[in-house]
Amino acid sequence: MDCIPTDEILDALAPQIGQIFFQLGAEIGLSIPTLENIQSNHPHDLAAQNSEVLFTWRKDRSVKPTIRVLVQALVNVGRGSL
Q1: Which residues, at least 6 apart from 24, have a Cβ–Cβ distance to it below 8 Å?
Q2: Helix 46-59 crosses helix 32-41 at what angle (to 10 degrees)?
Q3: What is the pLDDT of residues 4-55, one digit of tens each?
Q4: Is 11 exposed, middle or buried (0-12, 13-18, 19+ CB in 10 A)?
C-alpha cells in the first residue's frame, strides 16, 4: 500500500474513474489551474483526463504518491472502499 503505483495500475484505473476526475484531482492535491488545463487538453475524453490526473499526481513528489493515498482519495470521492 505504500508503494508508488505503476504505469499499468494507473492505466487500468483511469477508465474506471468516470466523470469525477476534477474531484479526484483536487482530493489528491492537484491545483485548480492544473485540473482546468487537463480538462481543456482533453475536452471530450474522460479516460484521458483521468489518466493525466493520475500521472500528474504521481509525478508531483510534494506528497509521496502511494497506493494508500490513492485508495483513500477514491474512497473520499465515492469511488472506492477500504
Answers
A1: 17, 50, 53, 73, 74, 77, 79
A2: 140
A3: 999 999 999 999 888 888 999 999 999 999 999 999 999 999 999 999 999 9
A4: middle
Note the helical H segments in 1-82.
7-17, 21-27, 32-41, 46-59, 67-76
- The whole-number pLDDT of residue 1 equals 83
C-alpha distances out from residue 54 to 2, 35, 66, Å: 16, 11, 11
Cα distance between residue 76 and residue 26, in whole Å: 11
Dihedral of the CA atoms 47, 68, 74, 23 (nearest 10)?
Answer: -80
Our measurement of the distance from residue 30's CA atom to the centroid of its chain's CA atoms, rounded to an integer in Å, reads 9
Full-model pTM: 0.88
Closest CA to 1 of 58, 50, 71, 60: 71
